[in-house]
Amino acid sequence: MFKNTLDNKRYYTLNYFFRQKFKQKVIKIPLDVNSSCPNQLNGGCIFCSNRSTSNISDATLDIVKQFNKGKEILEKKWPNSLYIAYFQSGTNTYGSVKTIKKFVDKLLVINNVVGISIATRPDTLSDDWLAYLNDLNKKTFLTVELGLQSSNEKTLNFINRGHTVNDFTKAVLKLQKRNIFTVAHIIDGLPYENKNDMINTIKYLNNLKISGIKIHMLYISKNTKLARIYENKNFPILSKEEYIDIVCEQLRNLDENIVIERITGDPIVDELIEPKWLVKKFCVLNDIDKEMVKRNIYQGDLVK
Ligand code: SF4
C-alpha cells in the first residue's frame, strides 16, 4: 500500500493528509462571496463561465448561513467531521482585506472549524493581503489555492490567463516564505498541449516544492470563448482513456510529498458541451485507481 493513503489509492490523498494533521475527517465547505476577478477586465480566461462550479455554495446567503447550509448537506455523508471554510469562487484576494477578514472572523468562531482556504490568482497578492495571510496562518490552518493551469507560457497566452509562469513562481515563494500551505490548480487537455507539456507542468511544481495540487480535466462550458473556439476549430478533446494515461504519468512524475486535492473536473452538467464522460466523476477516479494497479505504478516512482 502507498504510504500516504488510508485506502487503496496509490497517491497522497487529501484525506490522508487531514487525518494525519487533525486525527479526524475534515471536509471543505465551499463558499461564494461574490468575489470578482481582475482578469475579467482583460477578457477573462477563455474557459471561464464566470459561475461557481459548486452546487453547495449560495452567495445570496449571509456567510454563516451559507456555511451552515453547506455543512448540513455534507455532514449527511460525513458526520462528526471537522471543517475548513473554503472561499472558492472568483479571485478572493482581489477585494479589500477588510471584507474577507469580516467573513473569516465569523467563521473561525464556529465549532469545529479548523481552517480557512482561499482561492485566488498569483498576480493578486498585494502586500496588505500578504500581511493578513501571514497573521491568519498563525491563527488557523490556512491554505492558499493559486490557479496556474499550465507551466507553458504559450498556453497561458492562448488561454488568456493574464499572468506569466514567473508571476506564479513569485507568488508561491512569497507564500512559502510565510509558511503558508499553497496549492496549485492545473488543467489537463488545454488546446494544443501534448502529454510532455502536461508532465512538464508537474516537474515545474516539483521544483517549486508546492504543498498540494488540484488536477482538472479541461471542459467546455456553454457561453465561453472556449466554446466559440471549439465550434470554429473543433480542437481535439482528450478521451477518458487519454486523460487517465496522462494523469497516471503525471502522478509518477509528481513528488510523493505533494498532496493531491483533486484529480478530475467537476463541470456544471447543464452547461457542459464536452467532454461528456467527465460527468461520471467516480468512474474516472475508479479507472485511475485501476490503471495504477494494472501498471503497478505509484505517485513519485519516476522522481529521482
Ligand atoms: S482567473 Fe478564474 S475567475 Fe478570473 S477569468 Fe480566469 S477562471 Fe475566471
Description:
- This protein has a single domain (14-295), classed as Alpha-Beta Barrel (TIM Barrel), CATH 3.20.20.70.
- The strands form two sheets. Strands 1-2-3-4-5-6-8 form a seven-stranded parallel sheet, sandwiched between helices. A two-stranded antiparallel ribbon has the order 7-9.
- Strand 5, helix 7 and strand 6 (212-217) form a beta-alpha-beta unit.
- The relative contact order is 0.13.
- The protein has helices at residues 14-22, 63-77, 97-108, 127-139, 153-158, 165-177, 195-208, 225-233, 240-253, 281-295, and strands at residues 26-31, 82-87, 113-120, 141-149, 181-188, 212-217, 220-221, 259-262, 272-274.
- It has 304 residues and is of the alpha/beta class.
- The mean pLDDT is 95.
- Helix 7 packs parallel to helix 9 (240-253) and helix 9 (240-253) packs across helix 10.
- The longest helix is centred in the N-terminal third of the chain and has 15 residues, at 63-77.
Q: CATH class, please?
A: Alpha Beta
CATH level-four homologous superfamily name: Aldolase class I
**Total number of helices:** 10
**Total discrete domains:** 1
**Shape category:** globular
CATH topology value: TIM Barrel
Radius of gyration, Cα only, in angstroms? 19 Å
Question: Can you tell me the residue ranges where pLDDT is under 50 for at least 5 consecutive residues?
Answer: none
Helix content range: 25-40%
Give helix and strand order, one letter per element, not per position.
HEHEHEHEHHEHEEHHEEH
The chain-level mean pLDDT equals: 95
Please specify the SSE layout and strand pairing.
Elements: H1 14-22, E1 26-31, H2 63-77, E2 82-87, H3 97-108, E3 113-120, H4 127-139, E4 141-149, H5 153-158, H6 165-177, E5 181-188, H7 195-208, E6 212-217, E7 220-221, H8 225-233, H9 240-253, E8 259-262, E9 272-274, H10 281-295
Parallel strand pairs: 1-2, 2-3, 3-4, 4-5, 5-6, 6-8
Antiparallel strand pairs: 7-9
Helix pairs in contact: 7-9, 9-10
This protein binds iron/sulfur cluster (SF4).
